[in-house]
Amino acid sequence: xxxxxxxxxxxxxxxxxxxxxxxxxxxxxxxxxxxxxxxxxxxxxxxxxxxxxxxxxxxxxxxxxxxxxxxxxxxxxxxxxxxxxxxxxxxxxxxxxxxxxxxxxxxxxxxxxxxxxxxxxxxxxxxxxxxxxxxxxxxxxxxxxxxxxxxxxxxxxxxxxxxxxxxxxxxxxxxxxxxxxxxxxxxxxxxxxxxxxxxxxxxxxxxxxxxxxxxxxxxxxxxxxxxxxxxxxxxxxxxxxxxxxxxxxxxxxxxxxxxxxxxxxxxxxxxxxxxxxxxxxxxxxxxxxxxxxxxxxxxxxxxxxxxxxxxxxxxxxxxxxxxxxxxxxxxxxxxxxxxxxxxxxxxxxxxxxxxxxxxxxxxxxxxxxxxxxxxxxxxxxxxxxxxxxxxxxxxxxxxxxxxxxxxxxxxxxxxxxxxxxxxxxxxxxxxxxxxxxxxxxxxxxxxxxxxxxxxxxxxxx
Length: 461
Ligand SMILES: Cc1cc2nc3c(=O)[nH]c(=O)nc-3n(C[C@H](O)[C@H](O)[C@H](O)COP(=O)(O)OP(=O)(O)OC[C@H]3O[C@@H](n4cnc5c(N)ncnc54)[C@H](O)[C@@H]3O)c2cc1C
What we know:
The chain is an alpha+beta fold. It has helices at residues 3-13, 22-27, 48-60, 113-121, 139-145, 152-155, 190-194, 228-240, 253-259, 283-298, 311-327, 347-361, 387-406, 425-428, 431-444, and strands spanning 18-19, 41-43, 65-68, 85-88, 95-99, 104-107, 125-126, 162-168, 174-178, 203-210, 212-213, 217-225, 247-252, 273-281, 303-307, 335-341, 364-370, 375-381.
């Protein structure tokens, strides 16, 4: 990038919020995909006005712009694969409004999701989407990926909690989508178009969220089972019985062993799988549903159900659950992590397939995740980074995707396509779908400056 452009960027955001020092570039060169690409410059705007000026400049000179929240994305979405400008939203981190009467919250994109949720608690409100990364990921990143979490089984994913957005388009125009009302059908639903668009259509600068009253109470259970398959089959049974958990998370034996030290109690050797089940609502409903759950589990000799009795135990359970993904690196530094979704009733089949694949390819494969909505995290651990092991991991990924699609599933429930899955989208989307998506991309970003090299395969037009 030439000195003149750099100077102009520094003028827009202020000298201390614009850097091309090698140290800074490295800090913004990676995300949770563990790949690295150096940008040419990093800028930290603090307002929509600054964002507009950055995009106008970049568009004029056809410079790639990559929005970055916390860089916790697992598919390489925030990586500047073609260099250019990384725009960090870390200074756009204000909660702008909490409207108790209308159950609406408005935030800037750099707000940390967990911090927003903590603030809302003081108003007896909640914003349900709760990715395991909530302590560090941003609201902007969540919207751009349509993040999900354990509570999606009852409350839905990010798209179900967003009413509207302010977006700065590639040419610097501001686009306001959606409404501040529960309903609204004027024109096309552009809000949904931007949710999950992975920073390729525009940069989100304001988010209007739908809030919920904080439930009166919540009960947390840990179910231990000596049968992996019966446990995964139980997921569909629980939901069929009209028990409406707000969490139905599953972890297999390997995942459990990785984090067992964090759990409130020692887990017996015989345990093959666990479920975390939570039920929330008003006191009467919760008591009735807990009763129903306990009666159901009493009929299952392979299961033990324990109710958490205090906040400390609940925190330990969640710490363990949220630590699974990072703890995988104890097994190997080389991890391929997928977030496939299958119909709930077919989770046992998926888990069996992963066991067989693990044996066939001599690859440790562990499964855990949001079983309540069929979204299973399949983590494939290679022995090392050698070409042979990498080839094995690639074969495993391809076979997994084929199997998932043959089961009426989908390649990604919440992590998006980004860079790491762009070579695979044609497995799921037909040529017409890909063409229409690319036409939309062209319409919003004719010079392809916004997060180029993502979602679509590298050789696509
Ligand atoms: C330990 C761990 C656990 C995780 N658990 C979950 C989970 O349970 N559920 C889940 O869904 N994900 C999970 N993730 C993945 C990740 O946290 C989510 O994808 C999250 O939404 C990314 O947010 P971020 O702020 O880190 O975004 P980044 O990684 O910085 O960016 C992600 C994408 O969003 C785009 N983007 C960021 N901000 C904007 C903006 N303002 N406008 C437009 N585009 C933007 C980027 O360009 C990029 O394409 C986990 C990750 C880790 C490391």
